[in-house]
Sequence to fold (372 residues):
Amino acid sequence: MKIVKLHDLYFKELLSKKEVAQIVKRMVATVKKDLPEGEVPLFIGILNGCFVFAADFIRAFNADCEISFVKLASYEGTSSTDKVKKLIGINEDISGRTVVILEDIIDTGTTLQEIYEIFKTKKLKQLKIATLFFKPEVYKKELPIDYIGKNIEDAFIVGYGLDYNGYGRNLPAVYQLTTQPKMKNIVLFGPPGAGKGTQATILKDKYNLVHISTGDVFRFNIKNETELGLLAKKYIDGGDLVPDEVTINMLKAEIEKNVGVNGFIFDGFPRTESQAEALDQFLLEKGERINGMVALEVPENLLVERILERGKTSGRSDDNDEEKIKNRFNEYNTKTAVLKDFYEERGSYYGIDGVGSINEITARLSEVFDKL
Ligand code: AMP
Fold:
C-alpha cells in the first residue's frame, strides 16, 4: 500500500522496505570499517523508535557486538516537543567502551544533546552517533553526527519503528504525511467472464465513478484501426495479454483524460504485478490510492459457459473459441491471479461470491463499495 491511514491522518510511501534495507546495509558497512581491529562495540538504541532499525542493524553487523537500549521521550503528536525526559536503562558499567548510539531520526537535535550530556560522564573510549534519518533543515545544534543513513526533508514520517500517536511502527516501509486522498478508486477483479463489465456499468452510475475497462479501450482502438489497435489486436485475438508497457501507458492516458472526477472503477486492469505497481505509483504521484480490490469469485466451469453464451452476441473475437478462452484462463491463472495476494498483503482485498443474479451481485458489491 502506497498510502496508509493512521488515526485521522494519511501517509504516503517515501522509502520502500527494500530502499530502507539498502540504507541500513550501507550504514553498517561504514560503521564497521571505522572500528579498530578487534574492537567489540556496544550499540545503544534510543527507544522506542529505533527498535526495528537496531534489530536490522545488529543482524547485518555480523561480528561480535553488544546491544542495549535506553529510553528518552521525543515525540508527541506530529511535532517534536522541546522537552526530553530523562534517560532510563543504563545500569551497566560502560567505561572504556566504544559506544555507537543508534537513533531512528534526528531532527532538532534536542534528544541528541541529552545523549551527549549523559554519556559525557561515562568515561567512554569513544562515542559515535548513527542515525537512520536526519532532517538538516531543522537541526539546530552544532553537535557532531557520525553516520547518517539518509537526509530527509522536514516532513513527519512513520513506519519502520516510527509512529504517529503509537500507530505505524510495524509498517515495513517509511511513509510521510500527506493530504487526504479525494478519490475512491476501486479495482474490480475476477477471471474472464466473471461479470466485471456488467457490474461496473451499474456501479459507476451508483457511485458516480468513471469506469475504465482496458479491454473496451483496446476494442475501441481495434475498431477504429488506430496504431494501438493494430498492435493490440494480435494479442487479444489469441487471448494473450497485451504487453505491460503498452497497457500501462494507455491506462495512464485514460486516467489523465478524467480530471477532477470522484474516482475510478478499474476493470481488467491491473492484470500483472508490474501493472499493479505502476498503478500504485501513478496514483501516489497524485496523492491518491486504490481503496480496495473487489473480486468476483466464480468457479471456472461456470465461466466458460458464460463466455460462450456471451460470444453469441458480443461479437468479440476472443469469446467464441474454446481454445482462446482456455488461453485467457491460462493467462489469468499464471499472471493475474497473484494480484489477490498483492492486495491481500495490503489488507485491501475483498472477495465476493460472484454466482447469482445481477441484482444479487450488485448488492454484494455495493456493501463493499459503501465501506471503501
Ligand atoms: P477484457 O475485456 O478485460 O476481457 O480484455 C480482453 C483482452 O484485452 C484480454 O484478453 C487482453 O488481451 C487485453 N487486455 C485487457 N486488459 C489488459 C491488461 N490490463 N493487460 C494486458 N492485456 C489486457
The chain has a mean pLDDT of 93.
